[in-house]
Amino acid sequence: MVTSQHEAAHRIFHERPELLTSVFRLLDVTVPERASIEVLSADVTEIRPLERRVDCVLRLRPCNGRRSFLLAIETQGRRDEDKERSWAYYQAFLQAKYREEEVLLLVLCKDQATARWASGPFAFGFGGWTALKLTPLVLG
């Protein structure tokens, strides 16, 4: 449930974006001293059909009573910079959808060069700050 305290915690930056300068300084994140700030829609709902399909998703249930987990499998024939973000999306989506189960991403590569690239790690963030890091399991 949304509360006024919840809204106030982030809405202050809508009204006073200059406060971000102090916030970034406290967090030791380097940003340009002069920048324009534009408020964008916070809605992350996809409004148009967008196909996102993992090559294969399996649920593994160990017989020894350990927790089950998901294995997302992707086949990769060559280096493709767009895949880094797609794989991060798949990992995050499956983790959110199947909350009780951990998710592993396995990338099957046709050659060693592709396998070296696909091994990552792929870091997403800004200015040296890593907000998300993806390190797939890779065979190649």
Notes on the protein architecture:
Strand 2, helix 3 (81-97) and strand 3 form a beta-alpha-beta unit. The termini are far apart. The chain has helices at residues 4-15, 19-26, 81-97, 112-118, and strands at 56-60, 69-76, 102-109, 122-126, 129-134, 137-139. It contains four helices and six strands, in the order ααββαβαβββ. The strands form two sheets. It has a four-stranded mixed β-sheet with strand order 1-2-3-6. The chain is of the alpha/beta class. It is 31% helix and 25% strand.
Helix/strand order: HHEEHEHEEE
Largest sheet: 4 strands, mixed
Low-confidence stretches: none
Strand line-up across the major sheet = 1-2-3-6
Helical fraction = 25-40%
Number of helices: 4
Distance between the termini: 46 Å
Mean pLDDT: 84
Number of strands: 6
Described by its quaternary structure, the protein is single chain
Q: What radius of gyration results from the CA coordinates?
A: 20 Å
Structural class: alpha/beta
- Gross morphology: extended
Short structural summary:
The model has no long low-confidence stretch (mean pLDDT 84).
